[in-house]
Specification:
- It is a single chain.
- The chain is of the alpha+beta class and 152 residues long.
- The chain has one domain (20-149): 434 Repressor (Amino-terminal Domain), CATH 1.10.260.40.
- The chain is built from 6 helices and 4 strands.
- The chain has helices spanning 20-34, 39-48, 55-62, 70-80, 84-88, 119-126; strands spanning 106-109, 114-117, 131-138, 141-149.
- The strands form 2 sheets. A two-stranded antiparallel sheet has the order 1-2. It has a two-stranded antiparallel sheet with strand order 3-4.
- Helix 2 packs across helix 3 (55-62).
- The longest helix is centred in the N-terminal third of the chain and has 15 residues, at 20-34.
- The chain starts with 19 loop residues before the first helix and ends with a strand.
Length: 152
């Protein structure tokens, strides 16, 4: 399990600052609600991406009580159809409904609990400036993934 978050450790950010875990918590909850998803939906999607999350795990992350690993961060972005930049942006949320999209660029190995990404797919998940990731979720089943060029 990742290290404790600053807030859970009883720390307060300096005046005018916020903890990255709090920003992520806010943006995760916002993206989930804008996408019409319940915490259980996010947990199931994370499980299908190889991360054994429960509804309680989602709640802990949304309250800033649990950090996420780098692999979980990428999986959350894919599960919500967002970018890592969206999820770490300290400004008020501007996320729209899920922007799902990827296929030959991403391989999900449920038994191996591995998501294999080519560099172009990682760039799309992290910032989405030139390429967007679209994950086709049918309920909580990942039906496909594709990359979409959006120009430079």
């Amino acid at each position: 399990m990742p290290a404790s978050t600053p807030r859970r450790a009883g720390l307060q950010p300096p005046e005018g600052a916020v903890f990255a875990a709090d920003v992520f918590a806010y943006q995760l909850r916002t993206a989930r609600l804008l996408g019409g998803l319940e915490q259980a939906d996010v947990a199931e999607r994370m499980a299908r991406l190889g991360h054994p999350w429960t509804r309680q795990t989602v709640g802990e992350v949304e309250r800033g009580q649990r950090n996420v690993t780098a692999a979980e961060l990428l999986a959350v972005a894919l599960a919500l159809g967002a970018t890592v930049a969206d999820l770490l942006d300290p400004r008020p949320a501007t996320l729209g409904p899920s922007r799902p999209v990827v296929g030959p660029d991403v391989a999900v190995g449920p038994a191996a609990r591995v998501v294999l990404l080519i560099p172009r797919a990682v760039e799309a998940l992290v910032c989405g400036h030139t390429t967007r990731v679209r994950a086709d979720w049918r309920g909580n089943e990942l039906a496909g993934v594709e990359l979409e060029d959006v120009g430079r």
